[in-house]
Amino acid sequence: MSEVAQTLEGWYALHDFRSIDWTAWEAADESLRQVAMDELYSYMKEWQALEDTQTGSTAFYSVIGQKADLVFMHLRETLEELNTIETAFNKSIFAQFTYPAYSYVSVVELSNYMAPPGTDPMQNPDIMARLKPILPKWNHICFYPMNKRREGNDNWYMLGMDERRTMMRSHGMIGRQYAGKVKQIITGSVGFDNWEWGVTLFAEDPLQFKKLVYEMRFDEVSARYGDFGDFYVGNLLTEEKLGQLLK
Ligand code: 76R
């Protein structure tokens, strides 16, 4: 058996995608719509308060294209908290005007491919901050799930540690060139959801998603071993932008 890569886990993640029932929303009374929006604004304030105490983080974006209209990305200490947030939203008035589009359950993950040997990662404040990250409020989000291939001669899980480490180093070097332009959060989902990882990227300039993902396609770890699910891309929602969207 090949050596298992050790992983560190941080906050649990729920990516909750919703579509808006525009017909019902347009048909609703102005007063009901206002109550629905106020409720949503108060959730946004609650999420912000959690972030202020570093006990979780939430990102809220509108989604372009027909796969969904909204995405909430919640990071919390436990799966129970994620379930509570999801259920609270489901019981809200606004939720009556939405239907579920997609969801993804995972946990923030760092693997040890690049870790210097003999150090205790839990004593490293940079690592702790990456395991429990406050999500950036950058203009755009990109989310997609992925697997590492297990097919014939292209089986990631049968490769030796050194070979995987060499490839991950090359992957990391490409990624580093996007420092400051793209922030990536890798969440592990083996045992939690249908793919092995969720990839969440944030950028101010959405073209940087395309450039990064394209460049990685030529790198062996993605070219040979990456299998990808659907891509979701979105625009940051502030209270003001949400108001405009729902006007
Ligand atoms: O954690 C680190 O920064 C060390 C290097 C590193 C690891 C171990 C790293 C760097 N990644 C790691 C692990 Mn990554 N990453 C992806 C995708 O679309 C594609 O082709 C792949 C999707 C992107 C865009 C991306 C970006 N990475 C992983 C893993 C776990 C693999 C495993 O355990 O087998 C996956 C699935 C994955 C996928 N990666 C970076 C980036 C970027 C931008 C970096 C540089 C980060 C930085 O230096 O700040």
From TrEMBL:
GO molecular function, a single term: peroxidase activity
Positions contributing to Fe-coproporphyrin III binding: R130, Y144, P145, M146, N147, K148, H171, Q184, S222
Essential cofactor(s): Fe-coproporphyrin III
Keywords: Heme, Heme biosynthesis, Iron, Metal-binding, Oxidoreductase, Peroxidase
InterPro entries per UniProt: CHDC (IPR031332), ChdC/CLD (IPR010644), Dimeric_a/b-barrel (IPR011008)
Reactions the enzyme catalyzes: harderoheme III + H2O2 + H(+) = heme b + CO2 + 2 H2O; Fe-coproporphyrin III + 2 H2O2 + 2 H(+) = heme b + 2 CO2 + 4 H2O; Fe-coproporphyrin III + H2O2 + H(+) = harderoheme III + CO2 + 2 H2O
EC category: oxidoreductase
Cofactor note: Fe-coproporphyrin III acts as both substrate and redox cofactor.
EC number: 1.3.98.5
Catalytic residues (UniProt): Y144
Protein task: Involved in coproporphyrin-dependent heme b biosynthesis. Catalyzes the decarboxylation of Fe-coproporphyrin III (coproheme) to heme b (protoheme IX), the last step of the pathway. The reaction occurs in a stepwise manner with a three-propionate intermediate.
NCBIfam families the UniProt entry points to: PRK12276.1 (NF008913)
Sequence similarity: Belongs to the ChdC family. Type 1 subfamily.
Name the UniProt record assigns to this protein: Coproheme decarboxylase
